[in-house]
Design goal:
It is a single chain. The chain has about 300 residues and is of the alpha/beta class. The chain has two domains: about 5-55 and about 115-310, TIM Barrel, CATH 3.20.20; about 55-110, Alpha-Beta Plaits (2-Layer Sandwich), CATH 3.30.70. The chain has twelve helices and 13 strands. The strands form three sheets. Strands 7-1-2-8-9-10-11-12-13 form a nine-stranded mixed beta sheet. It has a two-stranded antiparallel ribbon with strand order 3-6. α7 (about 175-185) links the parallel β9 (about 165-170) and β10. The longest helix has 14 residues, at about 240-255.
Length: about 300
């Protein structure tokens, strides 16, 4: 890539909601994981619900609140009011201006999502370059769905490439095929989420069909992209024998033999409350230890390399 093209891409702007340092679960070595806003899926078990909308969102950490009322006094548009329990948020009025964040002495309010240029992002991740070099690590893009911001993602991948930093993308696969194939040569590793093989079940659980996801996975496998398939496991949802057999058969046919099994956890429920949304009534849980052991054994007997928890 020409130098002037790199400079141009460096000024592209994206929406980032978290940068997690010293990660050891999102690719090889020690990594910095960059979480981008926006996702076309609405998974019932989403553990980063603040990632779904491609816009900043206000989060309230109730345990930090000291009940001083400064946030309510600062809000000039009536998006906050006071009760005995503390501040009440009126989400329909909130403009996510950040006044309450600035006013709060206890950091109980937080805005998930800030605009960054590629240059600003690279400046942040390069602080960890010594760890990348010593551990053969690098940068992982997650979300949300990183491909929801394709220009920003590509710009960051390009600049990281010029610095010879390993690039990983964690994707749902629900991406325009021409986009994922075009960027595939700039990505050393794909962490590819696969929820279920059954299309009707996938539609019910995520709101979208899995046909594009399976098609893109097949095309990437044919291109011999480096892929680790990540499978969230939810009791009574996708941990039954028929589902696991379909997964095994499909991945074996594609020549893919590395999987991360991700048992369900409840982190997303608390995050929803921080966003001012009450979690749905449906109770989800991780598979029983015996069931998880059986699933692991089925994969390993078929020659898969299996990691629990990703």
């Amino acid at each position: 890539m020409k130098q002037d093209e790199v400079i141009s891409r460096s000024e592209l702007c994206g929406l980032v909601f978290n940068i997690m340092r010293y990660s050891t679960h999102d690719g090889p070595g020690i990594r910095t994981t960059v979480f981008l806003k926006g996702c076309p899926l609405h998974c019932a078990w989403c553990h980063n619900p603040e990632s779904q909308l491609c816009q900043p969102q206000l989060m309230f950490f109730e345990a930090r609140c000291v009940r001083c009322g400064e946030c309510v006094r600062r809000c000039k548009i009536g998006a906050l009011s006071w009760s005995r329990e503390g501040p009440i948020r009126h989400t329909g009025k909130c403009e996510c201006c950040g006044e309450c964040v600035e006013a709060c002495p206890a950091n109980a309010w937080h805005i998930a999502g800030r605009k960054m240029t590629v240059t600003e992002l690279i400046r942040e991740v390069e602080k960890d370059s010594i760890f990348f070099a010593e551990s053969a690590g690098g940068v992982t893009f997650s979300g949300g769905e990183p491909f929801c911001q394709p220009e920003f993602l590509e710009g960051a991948l390009d600049v990281l490439g010029t610095h010879r930093i390993h690039r990983t993308v964690d994707t749902s696969g629900f991406v325009a095929t021409n986009t994922i194939l075009r960027l595939s040569g700039k990505i050393e590793l794909f962490l590819y989420d696969l929820k279920t093989i059954d299309d009707k079940r996938h539609m019910k659980l995520t709101g979208v069909s899995n046909r594009l996801i399976l098609d893109n996975l097949r095309l990437l496998a044919r291109r011999r992209a480096d892929i680790v398939v990540r499978i969230p496991l939810i009791a009574g949802v996708n941990d039954d024998g028929g589902e696991i057999e379909a997964m095994l058969r499909h991945l074996s046919e594609l020549g893919l033999n590395r999987v991360d099994l991700l048992p369900y956890h409840e982190f997303g429920s608390e995050k929803l409350r921080r966003l001012g949304v009450e979690p749905s009534a449906g109770k989800m849980s991780a598979p029983e230890p015996k069931v998880l052991d059986e699933i692991v054994n089925r994969f390993t007997k078929q020659g898969f390399s299996v990691r629990i928890g990703g």
